[in-house]
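The instructor's notes for this session suggest beginning with a concrete chain rather than abstract definitions. Hand out the sequence below and ask the class to guess, before any prediction is shown, which regions might be ordered.
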Amino acid sequence: MDAFAVAVGKGLTWLRWSFKKALIMGLWFGVFQAAMPLAGYFAGAFFAGKIGVYSSWIAFGLLAIIGGKMLIEGLKKSQDDLYGTEERLGIKLMLPLAVATSIDAAAAGTAFALEGIPIFPAVLIIGVITCVLSAAGTKIGQLFGCKYQKYAEIFGGVILVLIGVKNLIGGL
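After discussion, reveal the predicted structure:
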C-alpha cells in the first residue's frame, strides 16, 4: 500500500499519463517489493535483525527528502508552472522510492522462512500485485492532479512525507 500511495503521489504531478511510464513505476515497485522479502528469506534472522532496526528510519529519510523536495518545488512554482511535471522515471528518482517503500519487507521474508512459507510463489504474488496497483495508482493520481493542478505537487510531496512519518512511527 505504501508503493501504491507513492505512485498516486507521483501521478498527481503528471500532465500526461502513459502506459509505459505507469509500467516503469509499477515494475520498479513490484521488483523491489518482491526482492526484499526474497533477500530477507535467504539472509534470515541476521539480515532482518540488522536492517529491521533501521528500516523505518531509512524509509522515513528517503521519503522525507523526496517528498520535501516536491513540496518545496510546488510552493515555489506559480500556478502557470504547475501544469504538468514531466519528469523521467530514472534510477535517481525511482531507486530511493523503491527502497523506501520496500525495505521493511525484508523482515517479512524472514518471517516467511520461519513459518515455512514457500518463498517463490509468495514473492511472485507480492511483485505482480504491487506492480499492478502501483501502475494503477499513477493513473488515479494523474486524474486527480489534472483536476487539482494548482496543489498537485504540494499534495504529492505531503503524501510522501506522511508515508515516511507513518513508517517511522510504525517502526518505533
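Then share the key points. The mean pLDDT is 79. The CA atoms of residues 44 and 78 lie 50 Å apart.
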